[in-house]
Each structure stands twice: as C-alpha cells, then as structure tokens.
Amino acid sequence: MNANTNASANSLLNNLLTSYKKWIVANPQLLSDIESTVKCLSYFGFGHFGNSSLAVELIYSMPNLIVLCNDLLMYSCRCKQPKIPQFESKIKIWLTVVEYTETLLEVSAEKLWGTVGKWLIIVVVQLFKTILKLLLLHFYKERVIKSPATPPLNREKFNKDIENEEGNLKEGFVLKRSGIVVRSVKHSAPPQVRTWKALSPDINKNEKSAKNQNFDRNLMLAENLYVIKPLLHLGSMYMTDEKHWYPWTLSFIVDVVSLNIFARCALQTIFSKEDEEELVRRRLSLLLYILRSPFYDKYSRTKINALLDTISASVPLGKALTNAVKKSLPYMQNTYFYMWSR
User: Fold this and answer.
1) Over the Cα atoms of the chain, what is R_g?
2) Is 114 helix (H, G, I), strand (E, B) or coil?
C-alpha cells in the first residue's frame, strides 16, 4: 500500500514538473514578469518585520533562488547537450546558491549559536567559496569569475539562439569530429528560395575558443588577488578588530591593485562582454567602501544623514522615502556591507 502511494505521488510530481517545464518554455516573458513582481514585493517587505532579520533574509533570498531554478529548468528543457562541462556547471550553481543565501546562513547561525556560531559560518562559507573559485580559475580557466557565478539567463536571447541552432540542424547535420554543420539535401529549401549561405557553426564556438587561449600571468594574478581577498580580510580582522582601519585598508588596496592589473591587461587582451560587465560592477562596488566600517562610522554617516534631511525638506514626498532609508540603513550597513561578501 505504501509503495503504491509513493509511486502515485512520484508520478504526480513528475507530471506536475513536466507541465511546469512546458509552461516556462512557452511563456518566458510572463515568467520573467512574475519573477520581477516577486522581487519587488520582497523589497517592499523590507522593514515590515520588526527585528526579524531572519524573515527579511529569507524573503530576500527566495526570489533569487526561484529565478535560478527556473533558468536551470528552461536550460535543461531546451538544451539536449550541456554547453559546459558538467562538474564546472555544478561548481557555478553551488557558488550561486551560496552567494544568494550566505547572509541568511550568517543570520541563522547567529540566532541559533550566537556570535561564535555566526563567525564560524562566515569562515566556512568564505573558505568554501574561495576553493570553488580557485577551481574555476585554475582548472577550468575561467578568466573573470562572475558574481553571481551563474548569472540570470537572458531568456529572449537564449530562445533565439536555440531556435537558430535547431533551424540549422533541420537543414543539416553536425560532423562529430570537426563540429562543422553540413547542409542536408533532403531538408534544404527549394532552389528558388535557397540562400546558398554556409550554415552557422555551433553558437558556443567562439566561447570555447576563447576559453582555450593561454592565460596571461597578470590576468591570473589579478583574479587570484580578488578571489583570496575575503580570506585576507578575515585574517586581518582576526589580528586586529572588526571595525579597525587595517582590514578596510587592506581590502581596498587589494581591490584597487586587482582592477589596475585588469585595466593594463585590457590594452593587450580582448575581454568578453560578460567579463567587461563584471569588471565594471567591481569598479562601481568601490563606492560601497563609504558604507563600510570604520569609514562609515567616522565620516559617511553624518554626511548621508544630512543629505537625507536636505532631500526630505526640499523634495515633494521625499520625507517618506528618506524616513524609510534612515530606518533601514543601520540594518543594511551592519548586515550587507561585509567586505568578504559583497
């Protein structure tokens, strides 16, 4: 009886999952709109849970995890063969999950085991992330490790690429050894409408060839510095104090040196669009140092509060916005602006 019940439950779950996969493939734009709405609701929910930081972090993490799951389901439905090595893909997925939930893990550990438990989880998480990133860097020759490691899927572009690839394969077939697409006589268009153009190769050919290029030592040095920065920061904090200037200064110097090396390498190396976007994000993240202790405690806090007061007094409806920012800023500053996490 129990075996039959389990079998029927598994069959029902499989049918539901199959139906859901078909739906997300057929309605990618609607799915994106729903995900965006859930994310917006999570932002509006910020500050309405009193001191329940655990609830805040859970609500903030869930939309990102939902987007990741939907992307993976869509990818598995549309791609019969993986475009990247399976183990590399798993590393990136694990990294992404940890990046989305690391603050939730820290807050949960603090609730359960106090400050000691919180710092233990921080050390374990950062060691785990650093090891996985070093694997991507040295074994899989990832040039610039993205944050998150598995970025949200550009579903419109993805679907177009898959449709183009499927269209090419309907007209021809791929040679196993060379990867060249050969036109099929049987499935070719009539002569009067035939384009006679060569079929496009695999859409990932350029990406694969770029990955196989020899890596410059300076590029490796720059990314290694960025990857081990969290551990350097934690080590300096252990030797000094959480709000001491040494950890702040060390992290800032490592960031600047790493970006400087990348800037010099950019004169000799062509970065992909995704790599360039990640480097721009890292440059912009330098601005967050004004919100990190001890700089925030010594200088930024009074300036930011004065600016918010000015906006509140001079901008229509600005008071409601500035009051919300003032209310949430202390929590955000204490929770989100650890230099090892962001």
Assistant:
1) 25
2) helix
Residue of 103, 112, 125 lying closest to 46 (CA atoms)? 103
Sign of CA dihedral 208, 213, 219, 224: positive
Residue type, 76: S
Asked whether 183 and 202 are in contact (CB, 8 A), the reply is no
CA gap 104, 53 in Å, rounded: 9
- Chain centroid to Cα 206, Å, comes to 22
Q: Which amino acid is at 105?
A: L
Distances in Å between the Cα of 216 and the Cα atoms of 146, 159, 252 are 18, 34, 24
Angle among Cα 335, 338, 342 to the nearest 5 degrees reads: 105
Identify whether the C-beta of residue 61 lies closer than 8 Å to the C-beta of residue 148. Answer: no
> From CA 339, how far away is CA 293, in angstroms rounded?
10
Q: Please tell me the distance from the alpha carbon of residue 114 to that of residue 335, in angstroms, as a whole number.
A: 15
Average pLDDT over residues 83-91: 70
**Which of 33-47, 71-85, 108-122, 192-206 has the least mean pLDDT?**
192-206
Structural contact between residues 143 and 223, judged by C-beta atoms closer than 8 angstroms: yes
- Residue 63, preceding bond cis, omega within 30 degrees? no
Interior CA angle at 20 toward 162 and 71, to 5°?
A: 45
pLDDT at 34 > cutoff 70 = yes
Q: Which residues 6+ apart lie within 8 Å of 45 measured at CB?
A: 56, 59
Which among 335, 333, 313 is positioned nearest to 322, based on CA atoms?
Answer: 313
**Residue 140 carries which DSSP code?**
S
Amino acid at 146: K
Residue with token string 């729903």: 34
- Tell me which residue has tokens 């183990």: 87
Q: What is the mean pLDDT of residues 133-146?
A: 91
Rounded Cα–Cα distance for residues 248 and 236 (Å): 9
pLDDT value of position 51: 54
